[in-house]
Predict the structure.
Amino acid sequence: MSALFNNYARRPVHLVEGQGTRVMDDQGKEYLDFTSGIAVVSLGHAHPAIVEAVQKQSEKLWHTSNIFASPEQEKLAASLVNDTHFGHVFFCNSGAEANEAAIKLARKHTQKHTIITFEQSFHGRTIATMSATGQKKVQEGFGPLLEKFKTIPYNDIDTLKAAVDDEVAAIMLEVIQGEGGVNPVSPEFAQAISDICQEKGILLIVDEVQTGIGRTGTRYAYEQTVLKPDIMSLAKGLGGGFPIGAMLGTPALFDAFGPGSHATTFGGNPLGVAVAQTVIDHVFQDDFLKQVNELSSYLVEQLKSVLPEDRFTVRGSGLLVGVACQEEVASYISKAEEAGLLVVQAGPHVIRLLPPLTVTKEEIDKAVELLASVLGIPVS
Ligand code: PLP
């Protein structure tokens, strides 16, 4: 019997090495990794600049504490807020922790408690972020949930209008629901959220744990919408594989988090910051983001050219792409793995493709060919 808890449905593949988009298992079998560790390995596996950053920093200093000054954190925070309307950053270690900080900041600033969230959303596994998550399967058996989360249908303007009252501190959403099925916010819904937040003085929290850091072809996914979040959470791609998360807030929220109000021991740890700075220095370049968009168009075009429209819908943005199928997709995921392609599910009907942002066109060609054959579609 395993010495591990059984909380992951692990696939029987032991990955031991990676380079770019390719990973290898302990039997020497190679796979194209179109999961990126679920939107984490943004620059691919073992990117030389990341390896160098880890090596250099690990020889200098691993950890101090947030009781000491950190010009490195200051620099990374400035890189994240540069050219945005955000003013300040709190560093932590994961997406759930970034969302916890977001919820706490919204409550502290507004002195209100209700947070509106959406069905099929995913915000994490802590008690607060699980309560914010709009998926029963995530919550089952762990109640009572934290009070004051109102979960309503996504992209439904009338229900949103009806849900708003004077108790609402914030509306919290993913610009594209990642785990929930690669569901983008509609332009009309984004406009309605934006109007309501402005009219009623409600804060907007955008969870960009999965969509942030270039994943959707812009630095942050909200930049492709009318949304202007007051608070944003980041993690996953920020560390390129090293655990680091961040919560960004506007200057108006600065006073709500005074000394001693919120903290985490490892947040903004020197190793994590060194790696994240390297990721940002690469990804936040116009040329890099332009290439992500080109690769995205290419991936979507290739998928659409082989997958019949009456059976499959291709959606998403940047290199967060979902192939929605009429049937359940669990068996396709394992067949793809057998064929040498790693992909991940998003809800019961969607195959999610999340290659590293450094994927090549040749790798996309190969992945599309493998996926088509797994889906039983002849490719000429
Ligand atoms: N928010 C979103 C949108 C996510 O996709 C995830 C993880 O999948 C989380 C939050 C939770 O992040 P973590 O697993 O790092 O706590």
